[in-house]
Amino acid sequence: MKLFPVYKTLAYVVGTLLLALALGMICKYLFPEGGSVQSFGETLTPIVAVGHGWIYMAYVVAAFFLSQRAGWKLAFLGLMLLAGLVPGLIFWVERRVEAKIRAEVPALVS
To answer: PANTHER family, per this entry (predicted)?
Structure first.
């Protein structure tokens, strides 16, 4: 099994869950208490937060092994890991990772 497709899938899942978590937090804290939108946020937030946390741990492992195989510096790995904690950033970083890996180590992609 190739590592890059696993990384890419985990990146998209983590990014989607993080955006859903941000949406849930907005609904939970920025809408009037007791309303249906606030209640939706209260229900959604803990479920998505736990899912994001577990899948983020798998993402960290995949990102670490991918960066080791590609021979990247620790700073780039740090950017990859930070991307899983900032809503929306992971989609931009994943494209950078793909471009970098295709240019530097194409054997990891194909």
So the answer is: MEMBRANE PROTEIN, MEMBRANE PROTEIN-RELATED
